[in-house]
Write a structure and sequence with these properties.
The structure is a single chain. The strands form 4 sheets. A 6-stranded parallel sheet has the order 1-4-7-11-15-18, with no helix packed on it. Strands 2-5-8-12-16 form a 5-stranded parallel sheet, with no helix packed on it. Strands 3-6-10-14-17 form a 5-stranded parallel sheet, with no helix packed on it. The protein contains no helices and 18 strands. It is mainly β and about 170 residues long.
Length: about 170
């Protein structure tokens, strides 16, 4: 599947290329996602989003690039995998998840289910992340939304990823 040039809605938040939301056991694989733009509210604009209350989902073998927000974003969920993806040129916009290729977010999510604010049991492995030579940019970023009041970030693993810093000429 290819998702290209996704324009941000001028009045809504949450523009993304592909999203799981309140989902279980979804696989997002073999996609090419690029040029997702920021909406007026300034949220998301990421290529792929494992959004709140998504469990046992896998994002793998995707190429995600040149999105205003993070390449892959995940917020308030458990037991997911981000693996074997290629990410570059993401996070250059002015969204809340800018400046990263992968962004993990704590947010006021589903308190009744006991998973209110955190990302737990996430495995991030074997990804290729090219990081632009711009101050503040990272490969993987964690952030907690100001509405989050607690939660426990447990058993998250980052292993065998390749982080490459671009030179000032993009190489």
């Amino acid at each position: 599947c290819g998702m290209y040039d996704v324009a941000g809605d001028s009045t809504r938040e949450g523009t993304v290329g592909l999203m799981t939301l309140a989902s279980k056991q979804i696989k997002v694989q073999y996609n090419d996602v690029s040029n997702v733009k920021t909406g007026q509210q300034g949220y998301d604009a990421c290529g792929i989003d494992i959004d709140w209350s998504s469990y046992q989902c896998e994002v793998s073998y995707n190429t995600v690039y040149n999105n205003d927000g993070a390449g892959i974003e995940t917020m308030v969920n458990e037991n997911n995998v981000i693996a074997y993806n290629t990410l570059y040129g993401n996070g250059k916009g002015s969204t809340n998840t800018s400046q990263s290729q992968i962004c993990l977010i704590g947010f006021e999510g589903d308190p009744a289910a006991g998973r209110a604010n955190s990302v737990s049991n996430l495995l991030i492995k074997e990804n290729y992340l090219r990081i632009p030579d711009i101050a503040g940019h990272t490969g993987i970023k964690t952030m907690i939304n100001n509405q989050a009041t607690g939660g426990q970030w447990l058993n998250n693993t980052v292993e065998n990823n390749r982080f490459v810093m671009e030179g000032s000429n993009g190489s």
